[in-house]
């Protein structure tokens, strides 16, 4: 699939010395939904601001469909729609005027039919003549989305679009994103809501402390890193796991009533379940129920960030080899 956005060695260091982005490399495919996950302060908003020309990069390059964001700013920026976290609209303008003005900012001719289509899709048509100040918080969020879509961008950035909004708007947002994708729009979503990424994204990127630590197809990420577990509820509590079962690396619950077996389909360990059940029977360990589970995207995200943090602490606390300087952290990178 053709790339529509290329980010190369992008770094941002503020005057205070804080390095918000550290040589970020990222390719976004045309027509995909890409979810960028990361804790607070990870660099998500700085990355978006840099791509959109709001933040000046310290070094690196951003190319949007062949247009350099610095050398050919107008052409590159006209292809991007941005829904920011903060509500930034003129409180005394009408919804219609606000959205129409945003289209004009990008040099697009008036197109009332398109503006109407956008407002109807966001359930704003009945509010088109209302001033922004008269709208609820959820309606104001819808207006921000309408503004971002007014000039018919090919790439849409959604920076925490459903933070603090009601369930209805979140559902409408998901439906709108699906429709936009069908129309060929590339969606880049930052979110704290892991279920949004799990529900919507084609690919997942994880950013931590200004570095991209992983980019992967969502399904492949879940397959590679998602732990699968078989939990057995025992008829009688055990004091310890018998030696005969030590090879399975079973976890026994504190009350001794549950055994948990963690396995990995990639290595054919599902077959190990049959052996486990056979050995349990031979050890005369009976169970009354069993269930299987798989790690969610949230579990994986938390594990990745924790692993990254632990690696950084290990590097900082360990003395460097003679003649070498100590690295500040080792990013876990996987090719997209």
TrEMBL record:
Annotated InterPro entries: AAA+_ATPase (IPR003593), ABC_transporter-like_ATP-bd (IPR003439), ABC_transporter-like_CS (IPR017871), ABC_transporter_ATP-binding (IPR050763), P-loop_NTPase (IPR027417)
* Annotated region (Disordered), positions in chain: 311-336
> What are the record keywords, sorted?
ATP-binding, Cell inner membrane, Cell membrane, Membrane, Nucleotide-binding, Transport
A GO MF label: ATP hydrolysis activity
For this protein, the record's Gene3D superfamilies field holds: P-loop containing nucleotide triphosphate hydrolases
Q: Which residues form a coiled coil?
A: none
**ABC transporter domain: from which residue to which, for each copy?**
5-234
**This protein's superkingdom?**
Bacteria
Keyword Membrane on this protein?
Answer: yes
Q: Where is the signal peptide?
A: none
Keyword Cell inner membrane applies: yes
Q: What is this protein called?
A: ABC transporter ATP-binding protein
Organism annotation:
Trinickia terrae
